[in-house]
């Protein structure tokens, strides 16, 4: 087994004794949680679903690393905070990671290195990616024990800065540089990921929005034909073609609507009411108004809700558009639409805490596959928190907190002929939480 012989480190002396640190323990890991992550994968099956959708043109008699093993290795590394393929070189002999992907820490060869992992990322085809995309949506559907009555589709692109000559890179003035703008689609009530779509750094067109919606909605309704779908999004989704498609396919929607001169002129009376309320009451004044409106290229009038606020900062009027005709204006804006802000937290966890902006491959297909692997890490982390950490002090924790407190546990590995035992710190403060998770994952082995 390879041993890291990096030179020793000398620290401040303690009571006249030298304090040294030496990287010479091959059977010590700093990431025992990798094994827990693999247990979650056995329950959720997202990595298996992804790899089952991939074609493998390699000569199997010469294959040392299967696609499932490599994908699981990469996803577990992402969960533990190792977001780059380069990390495979350093972690290929980590005992916890080898155990997580099904290899004996001592007897079996090393896991794959960075070049092998990069070849996997660059070998995927457009057909592979389409099958993987559907597999991720199917995994979302399978995460429900029974079909829900309704779900909420929260869809939003997010900036992903690019610094090389990658395909689909465009300059975005709002972002202030070259970037991609991948789509993230979540179920807004549960926070579960539905899919992610790698795309160019420009504002989405109507055709792009419809293309994503069409595939997602069709796949979901194959399993849940009677589910009611609410589409919730920002103002640049409220285009005439998108609205027509949504209405024609039986979805309900609540979306922001961009201000314009016509809308503001129609709502001049609302501004006057807000000003009067402000001066009469001497404190913040808020009003709602529901009305019919038709933009120039719309095929029909639609319901628009105006929300006006007069505060010390002046008058602020915002608009949303919906085809929910009987629901109150205040409820639609404050409860239904404003809850869309949660999707920003989901994207934050996906992008910042799981490093999904590491899209540095040249080929767009490779970057899409990377995005799918990071999405698989999101699915596992969300399942860990939502299902197995329920009722514990980490039940509402962010992904980075879960990683730092639950996955990044130092352990010494003991490998025997009939067992592999991890010796964890006796002083570990979250022993009850870890026991709860492991017992929930393996109820037959509860102690």
Write the layout of secondary structure elements.
Elements: E1 9-14, E2 17-21, E3 28-29, H1 33-44, H2 46-52, H3 67-79, H4 87-91, H5 95-100, H6 114-123, H7 126-142, E4 150-157, E5 160-161, E6 170-172, E7 177-180, E8 183-187, E9 193-197, H8 206-223, E10 228-233, H9 240-248, E11 252-257, H10 261-266, H11 268-281, E12 285-293, E13 302-311, E14 314-322, H12 329-337, H13 342-351, H14 364-388, H15 399-407, E15 411-415, E16 420-423, H16 431-441
Parallel strand pairs: 4-10, 10-11
Antiparallel strand pairs: 1-2, 3-15, 4-8, 5-7, 6-7, 8-9, 11-14, 12-13, 13-14, 15-16
Helix pairs in contact: 1-3, 1-14, 2-3, 2-7, 3-14, 7-8, 7-14, 8-9
Q: Could you explain the architecture of this structure?
A:
The protein is an alpha+beta fold. It folds into two domains: 9-123 and 364-445, no CATH class; 126-351, Transposase Inhibitor Protein From Tn5, Chain A, domain 1 (Alpha-Beta Complex). Helices cover 40% and strands 20% of the residues. The protein contains 16 helices and 16 strands. It has helices spanning 33-44, 46-52, 67-79, 87-91, 95-100, 114-123, 126-142, 206-223, 240-248, 261-266, 268-281, 329-337, 342-351, 364-388, 399-407, 431-441, and strands at residues 9-14, 17-21, 28-29, 150-157, 160-161, 170-172, 177-180, 183-187, 193-197, 228-233, 252-257, 285-293, 302-311, 314-322, 411-415, 420-423. It has an eight-stranded mixed sheet, sandwiched between helices. A three-stranded antiparallel sheet has the order 3-15-16, with no helix packed on it. Strands 5-7-6 form a three-stranded antiparallel sheet, with no helix packed on it. Helix 2 runs antiparallel to helix 3 (67-79) and helix 8 (206-223) runs parallel beside helix 9. The radius of gyration is 26 Å and the shape is globular. The protein starts with 8 loop residues before the first strand and ends in a 6-residue tail after the last helix. The relative contact order is 0.14.
């Amino acid at each position: 087994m390879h041993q890291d012989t990096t030179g020793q480190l000398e620290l401040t002396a303690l009571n006249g004794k030298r304090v040294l640190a030496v990287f010479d323990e091959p059977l010590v890991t700093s990431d025992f949680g990798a094994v827990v992550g693999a247990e979650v994968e056995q329950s959720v099956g997202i990595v298996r679903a992804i790899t089952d959708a991939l074609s493998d043109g390699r000569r199997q008699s010469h294959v040392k690393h299967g696609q499932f093993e490599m994908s699981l290795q990469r996803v577990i590394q992402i969960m533990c905070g190792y977001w780059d393929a380069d990390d495979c070189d350093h972690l290929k002999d980590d005992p916890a990671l080898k155990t997580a992907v099904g290899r004996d820490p001592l007897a079996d060869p090393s896991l794959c290195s960075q070049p092998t992992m990069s070849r996997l990322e660059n070998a995927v085809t457009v057909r592979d990616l389409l099958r993987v995309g559907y597999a991720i949506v199917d995994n979302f559907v399978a995460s429900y024990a029974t079909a829900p009555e309704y779900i909420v589709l929260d869809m939003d692109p997010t900036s992903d800065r690019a610094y090389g000559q990658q395909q689909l890179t465009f300059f975005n003035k709002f972002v202030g540089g070259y970037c991609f703008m991948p789509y993230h689609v979540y179920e807004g009530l549960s926070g579960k990921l539905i899919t992610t779509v790698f795309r160019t750094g420009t504002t989405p067109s109507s055709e792009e929005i419809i293309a994503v919606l069409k595939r997602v909605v069709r796949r979901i309704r194959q399993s849940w034909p009677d589910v009611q779908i609410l589409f919730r999004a920002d103002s640049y989704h409220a285009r005439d073609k998108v609205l027509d498609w949504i209405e024609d396919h039986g979805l309900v929607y609540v979306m922001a609507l961009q201000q314009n001169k016509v809308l503001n002129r129609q709502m001049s009376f609302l501004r006057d009411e807000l000003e009067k309320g402000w001066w009469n009451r001497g404190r913040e004044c808020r009003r709602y108004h529901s009305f019919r409106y038709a933009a120039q290229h719309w095929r029909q009038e639609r319901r628009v809700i105006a929300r006006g606020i007069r505060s010390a900062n002046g008058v602020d009027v915002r608009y949303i558009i919906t085809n929910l005709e009987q629901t109150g204006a205040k409820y639609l804006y404050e409860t239904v639409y404003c809850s869309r802000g949660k999707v920003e937290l989901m994207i934050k966890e996906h992008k910042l805490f799981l490093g999904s902006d590491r899209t540095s491959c040249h080929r767009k297909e490779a970057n899409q596959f990377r995005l799918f692997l990071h999405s698989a890490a999101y699915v596992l982390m969300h399942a860990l928190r939502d299902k197995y950490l329920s009722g514990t002090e980490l039940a509402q924790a962010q992904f980075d907190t879960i990683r730092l407190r639950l996955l990044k546990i130092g352990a010494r590995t003991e490998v025997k002929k009939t067992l592999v035992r991890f010796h964890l710190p006796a002083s570990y403060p979250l022993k009850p939480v870890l026991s709860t998770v492991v017992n929930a994952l393996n109820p037959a082995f509860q102690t």
